[in-house]
Amino acid sequence: MHRASHESNLAYGMLRRAALNPERIALIFEEEKVSYGQLAERVRRQATMLKEAGVCAGDRVAYLGFNHPAFFETLFAANTLGAIFVPLNFRLTAEELTFIINDAGVHTLICDDPLQPTVEQARANLDCQNYYSSESESDNWLHLNTARASAAPMTDVASVDEHDICLIMYTSGTTGLPKGAMLTHGNILWNNINAMMAFGGSRDDVILTAAPIFHIGALNVMCLNSFLLGSTVALLRSFDPGQVLADMQRYGATHMFGAPAMFLFMSQHPDFSGTDLSSIKALLCGGAPVPVPLMELYGERGIVFCQAYGLTETAPFACGLSEEWATLKLGSAGQAPLFTEVRIVGDDNKPLSAGEQGEICIRGPNVMKGYWNRPEATAEAIDEMGWFHSGDIGYMDEDDFVFISDRLKDMVISGGENVYPAEVESTLYKHDAIAEVAVIGLPDEKWGEAVTAVVALNEGCELALEGLREFASEHLARYKIPLRLHFVDALPRNPAGKVLKYVLKERLSD
Question: Which single residue of 106, 181, 245, 377 has CA 20 to 30 Å from 328?
Answer without folding.
Answer: 245
